[in-house]
Amino acid sequence: MRESIVKNIINSESKISVLIDESTTVSSKSCMAVFIKASISHEDPIFIFLDLVELEKQTAENIVNQLLNCLFTFGFQDSYLQHNWVSFVSDGASVLVGKKNGVTKLLKDKYPLIFSWHCMNHRLELAVGRVLDVRWVASSFRAVEIVWKTYPALYNHLQNSSYDNLRDQKSRSKYLGLFIQLHCRVLMNQLKEQSVIDSFKTKNGDFMLEALTAQKTMIFKTIVLSSNTNLNSRLLETNEEESCILNDMQILNEHTWPCTVENIRFGEDEIKRLTNRFLLNTDNAIQGFRKYINNKIINDELKELDILIKTFPVSTAECERGFSQMNLICSDLRSRLSVTNISSLMFININGPPVAIWNPTSYVKSWLIKHRSTHDNRSRKVAQIKLNEEKASLWKIL
User: Fold this and answer.
1) Residues 6+ apart with CB under 8 A from 241
2) Taking 80 as the threshold, does the pLDDT of residue 124 lie above it?
3) Chain segment 16-25, per-residue pLDDT in tens
4) Which pLDDT score, from 0 to 100, does residue 131 have?
5) Spatial contact of 84 and 15, defined as CB atoms under 8 Å apart
6) CA-CA distance, 152 to 137, in Å (whole number)?
7) Beta bridge pairs of residue 46
8) By C-alpha distance, which of 13, 10, 11, 34 is closest to 22?
9) 5, 37, 180, 224: least CB-packed within 10 angstroms?
């Protein structure tokens, strides 16, 4: 399946983006998930899980070597990557984006077409984390929301479990501690703080209320201003080259155009910079863009440039989904699986066709030809012959 996909990408001369992220399996093996985004048969680009690589070392040089070895293994030759590898996306770890010896720097020195990108989701976490002191915004919000919705059930479960005679003393103590933490420490403190605020309102009247309102307004404005500053600095942090490329890509977004396009050569400079930067046919792209201005429909001449722009990922979310799949496969009950087998199972689960349309005939024939069936007498005969030969050799020695 991998060979077929890679062969299609290469024959189509499709541009590719590479996404990587690191994680650890249940068996404590450091692994790197490798995804690519590319067009299959000249259609819109899609994400494809390529491989799960066990990292020998977590240095930039080793990551680059193992990543390139992974790409070479599945058919991407160096000459192809020189002309078609257009983007590299990571989570922004220092070993990956270091300006002197990071993975991105080493890759761009070897493949100059690469447009490096720091995952937008990780940028958002860094931007909000400076204000709210959290790492995973969406995850934290979902966790708090779930606890809030299920609080009555949690309360009853912890309370009943702490007095359940069918449980041992250690378990009951653990549940009692959780119950106290949930009920007394959190809720009682909240009620206490609310009572203090209510007493101030009652005692001082409207003046204290106005002071509190003004203070809350000032705090809110400070948070908004700080959030806005951090979001701008983190989310829009790009170098000069990246800014130019991003601005040029906006030319295909008709909402960024002036109300009326009167200049027949409108957008040609942006088109030329993009096609020259990523080795596309400039004349076809310009002719196609002139038609696009009139009818707002992507035509055959412009499709190559349109696919290129769609090939650039904005985040490494697919890698995170891949790790979720990895944890489902390599569970506590299957922690002895090798990384190679985990990778194969992940490839089938992520990229494989639905079972309803899968034709297993060729795989069954291959299995039978190799005599892997437990009811196949041929495999048993071969094993018995080898056993007899080993016994004969042993008797000669004796």
Assistant:
1) none
2) no
3) 999 999 988 7
4) 47
5) yes
6) 25
7) 38
8) 34
9) 224
